[in-house]
Fold these 3 entries.
Entry 1:
Amino acid sequence: MKSGVTISNGLAWTRDERTMYYIDSQTQRVVAYDYDSIRGDISHPRTVIEVNALEKGWPDGMAIDEEGMLWVAHWDGGHVCRWNPHTGAELAEIRVPVSRPTSSVFGGEDFDTLYITTARTGLEPEMLARQPLAGSIFKCRPGVRGLPMNEFGG
């Protein structure tokens, strides 16, 4: 559906399944597409969030909450940030004690727990010594609920 992809990462859909959000990490952007759930087509790409990787880390995986805000993990940034895709504004930040968060997902009985995955990949021994929890999964309750995962027929 898209050519020229470098490091394909985060995907999220709005509750009404009319918008799909996508991250290609190297572009340092979150792009929104109109999504046709009947045909599975995407159209009208537009940048909704731009990330300065030197300041924030590379955008990686993401989740969406019930308010339509995006929770983006920032590889080499040590945090997950909540972003407003309508304004491009950063709304919140959750720091983790490792440099490489990889993704986030809402879970728990009420989807009120945010789980954050992280990586150890590519960390030198001295960095691993300073980040013994690298590769762990963290959880927190950010005060907002997520959406159940989308189910698609095959």
Entry 2:
Amino acid sequence: MAVIIAAGFILFYVAYRFKEKRYGVCAILAMFHDSLILLGIYSLLGHFFGVEIDTLFVTAVLTILSFSVHDTVVVYDRIRESVRLYPRADYYSLVNKAVAETLTRSVNNSMTIIFMLLTLYLLGGETTKWFVFALLIGTISGTYSSTFTAAPLLVVWNSLIKKK
């Protein structure tokens, strides 16, 4: 329920800030990708290793959603900036340019988080082990989806609009 409520607020906010609902919808779809990856891994861990979902897991999911959307907004902002600077350019090329410009930043940002989470997972206590693992999986999935799911969804949406 918390994920759906958070998704609604994020959809509204991103659509409002970017002045187009397609940005909000694509960000939410990428965010749900991260949620499904995390839920799928945890369902397998629960089935095979008896890992239980608790309030720390819900906290991890909501944290990952915010991280994923933040990363997506950075890419979307660069796309919006490129569209303003080069209005006659092909949308596909502008999205590709924006992804290339933000990829290094996203990877560097994520790697610092991943190194910290790996250290916390290996050296931390038993009570935070699965919480940190959820954050780790979500960070990896969120980094991937911001660049390689959210941006291509915009390109597909744009191409569907042009066909009509």
Entry 3:
Amino acid sequence: MTKGDQSKFMSSAEQMKQDLGTALCLAKWKQVSLHLPTGLNNSCYHPPLHKIPVENLAANPGSLHNTPHKKAQRVMMLQNQKPSECQYCWNMEAENKLSDRHYRSGEPWAAIDFEKIQNSTGEENDVIPSYVEVNFNNVCNLMCSYCSPQFSSSWQQEVDRSGGYPTARVHNDPGHFVGDRRVLPAREHNPYVDAFWAWWPTLYPELVHFRMTGGEPLLDRNTYRVFDHVLENPSAKLHLNVTSNFSVDEKSWQKYLSYVKQLCDGRIEHFMQYVSLDGWGSQAEYMRHGLDFNLLWDRVNQFLTEVPSYNSLTFIVTMNNLSVTSLENLFAGILGLRQTYSKTYQRVWFDTPVLREPAWQSLQILPEAYADRLEHLWAWMIRQSETPEDPFHGFKDYEIARLDRDIAWMRAGQSQDHSAARADFYRFFREHDRRRGTDFLKTFPEMKSWWAECEYHARNT
């Protein structure tokens, strides 16, 4: 991606800021995230997940996306009303920042239908999304600190064995995951997965981006069913994306790598490998329990070396309060990868979405000094900006802008009373250390005073 292309990405978002008006977001029509183990749905990761009515699926599998709830939100947007579930974007815009509403709507897969959507009623039944993200099941070998049994079978096994965590709002208690919130195990019949495969022949020809998450997709047979279909039915416009922890067993890794090599042999437009990583070294391993950081980094290099074309790799850095202290090391590592592998186009990317739940891992509950630390990182990124003469090796303007947005969000919430969340931080990670054999202070020695403050709140709240 050249400097001109990079600026085009920003200018598209700026243009959409003018064109969309006060409330419209094209992602409500053109994007969907499907969580099939629980039958839940949203259009991006900001709004709360909502239930997909199972009774509609047999007659209309497209209702996986076109739920009554979502159609009601579309109608509101077309009437210049702001759905409350999209408050994150409204908050960012109140800070005069570009929001994800602008970024998503400005991307070609959404923007192409802008006029059609603008002139619709919002109640059409057969909107086919061009960007689909799907979680087929919750099988996962990690227990990330901010995750839950909805997305990790390892978490499910732990809380079944030891119960929920002793925070003020009981966390991941088995009693919560019953009824409509029950996770359907991979071994059980799942009507939502059945509906997906019934919808697939209609959906596949329209796809521009298709992303598989988890759980851990490398351990899911549905991943390879998709791969087999794509190999048999190549698509010149398809961007095929997979999110992984890159820490699975060697046999699963080799199987996956073999498939990706075939897919990247001219069968699709592009393969984007997403890798979840929130920090550096032992601190990254603490946040994502079960992660082998050195193995992950070795496999990142192996992927970029052995799959040389039709692909790139993006780190998903979920910005939580344990990320701050090692983020500079991670960003320096990303620059190193860009120097090595980005020769004729950008092959190494990253994104920094903020974590809002659970509240005790939010950036907003940290003292102001940690926001200052991120400000210094932001200033360093500006000094390392890419240039027209060296377009692939520095930081891009929207990467810098997104971190600036994260800092603004962090500072916007720091004036609130966070004593309860700080107390829960201590309760959660004290229990984390007890159950999992970890040591917070050994792993995060620079957060010693913060730990003491959280302990104070836990003992006095």
